[in-house]
């Protein structure tokens, strides 16, 4: 498998918006965005945006994952994390987390904060942040959880996808 992870670029804005409005199973916050919203966020220096593409032996899966994090002082809050069902179990989520940590660290971010809001369809990602090494810091009566990850020099990359630089 070969993957590409980059900041949002114009050619993929419509696909990222489409994913936000279609992806239910692997969608941690289930927030919905229009293409205009995605374009605006991508121009905001207070956000880290990432898209991922994956090519495997069966072909190009296209843009399959999106992530938006807003920066707040020395921490970044993950507002959106979703992935197409076409690439479940391909470890692309680990490659994306590795890239997010790399970009956050380069930007002086010391902590990532992630959120999970349960729906009838997204139970499969309930423990996503725990699998990524985050610590659960809050859970309310509806099952909404908040997680944090302290960025240090000891982060070990988990990806198994070969990344291609474009």
What does this structure look like?
This protein is an alpha+beta fold. Helix content is 23%, strand content 34%. The protein has helices spanning 13-22, 35-43, 92-106, 128-131; strands spanning 2-6, 47-56, 59-72, 75-83, 111-116, 135-139, 145-150, 162-163. It has an eight-stranded mixed β-sheet, with helices on both faces. The longest helix has 15 residues, at 92-106. The radius of gyration is 15 Å and the shape is globular.
Helix content range: 10-25%
Structural class by helix and strand composition: alpha+beta
Write down the overall mean pLDDT: 84
Give the strand content.
25-35%
Describe the structure concisely for a colleague.
The protein is an alpha+beta fold and 166 residues long. The chain has 4 helices and 8 strands; from the N terminus they run βααβββαβαβββ.
What is the secondary structure topology, with strand pairs?
Blueprint: E1 2-6, H1 13-22, H2 35-43, E2 47-56, E3 59-72, E4 75-83, H3 92-106, E5 111-116, H4 128-131, E6 135-139, E7 145-150, E8 162-163
Parallel strand pairs: 1-8, 4-5
Antiparallel strand pairs: 1-2, 2-3, 3-4, 5-7, 6-7
List the keywords.
166 residues; eight-stranded mixed sheet; alpha+beta
